From TrEMBL:
GO terms for biological process: protein maturation. It comes from the Bacteria. Pfam families: HupF_HypC. It comes from Streptomyces mangrovisoli. GO terms for molecular function: carbon dioxide binding; iron ion binding. PANTHER family: HYDROGENASE MATURATION FACTOR HYBG. PROSITE patterns: HUPF_HYPC. This is Ni/Fe hydrogenase formation protein. Belongs to the HupF/HypC family.
């Protein structure tokens, strides 16, 4: 199942002419393309689908959605266990 998940922008940088951000999805941090939301700023929330920020979201709505996803275990389903992912990445070094 594919989900559009709300996340908070932690950092913004330009990479090869593309605006990218580090985004926190309730403890899971991923790189996201900001080309569809060029005015998004650090601290803003957005709905992200397959690595692209698609729509700005207010903080309360984002928090409620992330809490619901966490209760249902959907963040782990979508992103995997962050500790397991970190262990796999460390083992690959």
């Amino acid at each position: 199942m594919c989900l559009a998940v709300p996340g908070r922008v932690l950092e913004i940088q330009e990479r090869d002419g593309t605006r990218m951000a580090t985004v926190d999805f309730g403890g899971v941090v991923k790189e996201v393309c900001l080309e569809y939301l060029p005015d998004l700023c650090v601290g803003d929330y957005a709905i992200v689908h397959v690595g692209f920020a698609l729509q700005r979201l207010d903080e309360e709505s984002a928090r409620q959605t992330l809490e619901l996803f966490a209760e249902l275990g959907m963040l782990q389903e979508e992103f995997g266990d962050p500790w397991e992912t970190a262990a796999i990445e460390e083992a690959a070094k």
